[in-house]
What we know:
There is one protein chain. This protein is α+β, with helices and mostly antiparallel strands. The protein is 32% helix and 29% strand. It has a six-stranded antiparallel β-sheet, covered by helices on one side. A five-stranded antiparallel β-sheet has the order 4-3-7-6-5. The chain has a five-stranded antiparallel β-sheet with strand order 9-8-12-11-10. A hairpin with a 3-residue loop joins strand 18 and strand 19 (440-447). The chain is elongated, with a radius of gyration of 45 Å. The N and C termini lie far apart (121 Å). Residues 1-17, 147-152 and 746-757 have low confidence and may be disordered.
Amino acid sequence: MRVSGSGPSGRPQAFEYVAAAVLDDRGTVLRWTGAAKDLTGFTAEEVCGRPVQELVADLPDELRRATEMPVSGRVRLWHRSGDSIDVTFRTSAVEGPAEFLVLAAPAQHVVDHEQGAALLRALSSQDRVTIALHDTDLITVQTNAMPGTLDGRQVQPGTRLCDVLCAEDAENLEAVLRQVLETGAPVIRRSQHVSWRHDAARRRALSLSAFRLEDARGRPTGVAALYVDSDHVQHLDLTRELAERVGSSLDVVRTARALADVLVPAFGDLVTVDLAQSVFDGEEPPKHLGGGDLGLRNAALAPAVTVWPTRTEHGDLFPPFPDHPLLRRFQQGETSLIAADGYGAALGDPRLVEFLIPQQGHSVMVAPLHARGLTLGGVSVWRCGRSDPFTEDEADLMTLLASRAALAIDNARRYTRERRAAVALQQSLLPPATTDTPAAETAGVYLPAGGGAGSSGDWYDAIALPSLRLALVAGDVVGHGMPASTTMGRLRAAIQTLADLELEPDELLTRLADLVQRLAAEAPPDDHHIVGGTCLYAVYDPVTRRCAMASAGHPPPVLVRPDGTAEAVEISPGPPLALSGMPYETTVIDVEPGSILALYTDGLVERGDRDIGQGLPRLTEALAAYCRPDRALDETGRALLADLADQAPRDDAALLLARTRAVPAADTAHWEIPADLAAVSKAREWVTRQLTMWGLDDLLFTTELIVSELVTNAIRYGRPPMDLRLIRHNVLVCQVTDSSSTQPRLRRARTTDEGGRGLFLVAQLGGRWGCRHGQNGKTIWSEQAIQISP
Length: 790
């Protein structure tokens, strides 16, 4: 046995043989070989007759206490130079006298040898990898080729390649191996097509890797060749590609298309993926055994343009299937290999033959898409023209691929169901798409996210307020799916409640932020960060033709004027709703009648290739182009969304358009009230004269009483300046404004009370009444319905 290693002090040294010595049962050295001298530097004369322990630099405790000669171990031996050598030894008793043969070699060389042997054993045990060791004459010395690895026959040492392969293929392979033997340059994964000598018609593709073998002096001793079935390599690549590409989308059709694209042309010439109709809708497919209407519809074809004109043009549901053993095996999860003729005979129906069998296909492999106990559909792989028929190994691979693809399709199906439920909930919580109020006509559009994101709680709202005013809202909730839709519904309900209190926009957002913080506190610990959102709240008054707005981290609205110019409104956004500690600020702008206010969410101005800094100018330009007086608002909204949103947006997009109106000056009347109780009678005179002018004589009595009470309360309990306003539309609005911030209260006066009945009378006489606070005081109002003559 030849070994090599390093000598003391790192000096290179070659050992022709493993060092050997003979010891007696007391450990005395009896004989010492030349290899032992090469290993330690000590001669036989210097060592024989001495205890071997004197040569050991550091004798381990277990060897020091040993009473018998150890079978094997590892020690450090002294070298003549004074250095030490780490060696591994093995002992064996010699027949006859009590003597022992000790073999020793450098420990590192033994480790390398053992690792190399372990690697060789591991490679040799692989049934997909054939290893052959050839000598310099290219005769097989050793191989792991067993039945089924090459040509199904045992390969014995001493054979040549021409004993296994056809003469021409063997000659080509030997030429490659001879080149490796002569040059020493390895060959890595070289493709070789070969035919077996005993089965010339069977031709296989092999991947060849070859390396030259050398002895310790670098002289060639042979060639090591590794033969890997290229089909197996291709199958591994196919499995890896399917894992990477199939399942990357949560869309059922895209997942099916990815499966078809992976299989063509790597596995077949034509592929069709067919799914149950219910799978497209996110529902579970019906359990069916036997023939009949299976409710199948095509989801993907590869290549996309094929020879299925009926399927590609119409996409109809499949005709009913006959009850056949082939169909039942499919429904029970079995992959089937069948020739085109046999497939057509099994189908029986000419319509099915036209639907399922391509004109050039000669064999097909049909695998069910079976996941979680459900048969979602099937995948059919066709080979056409001169392609080889499918094998049983390929059927096993197809079963594995179909099983993995079925899980991906089922995940997409389940996501589709959840997404549809979330979107349905979201849309059910949104207000009507269009409204028509004295203040404005509105139209809202909503586009749920696509590409796996799901709904994310974007919403809009238009809320009619007293005194003919209109609140406009746009909001965006953090998160996706059901939780986001649920949070959106709660916030929308809260805003409607707060809007009824007639709060200023900044005050309303402050209270809404407090609610969001309470919702976050109630959420599970892991969900605190997903409760939040942004909101824009605006109130338009058609009498003053002004709009007050405030933003909680929301993008600014865009104002399109009647002349067609458009610009984003400059507002000071406050923090998002989940944060606190910073106040919100109300911005007030003048709005001409016929203007369009556009409120939107960030899904309309932000996407992968642009941020809001780029998206907002584009939205502004689009609004200026699309918003025309002769175009319906809902049509304008849909056109804007189609132009600005992605095909599969990653975020929801909501858009609310409001075309403003104004109450004509002839339908309003305004008077300043002196701080004198004598002004009460003057107010009644003003009201009588104005209602007579408007032809509302039937409201004279009740309106005089209401105005008397409201003006009296303002003079007694309020502060100047004070004013009275009448507004005529479908209702008659009487409102009195003063500079006091005191809150009036409705109460029932006792019999002996001299006052306290004013607001009670107002509430009884009018249709409804209320009080709102502004920056400069409060306004108490009352509404009465106007009876329109037929």
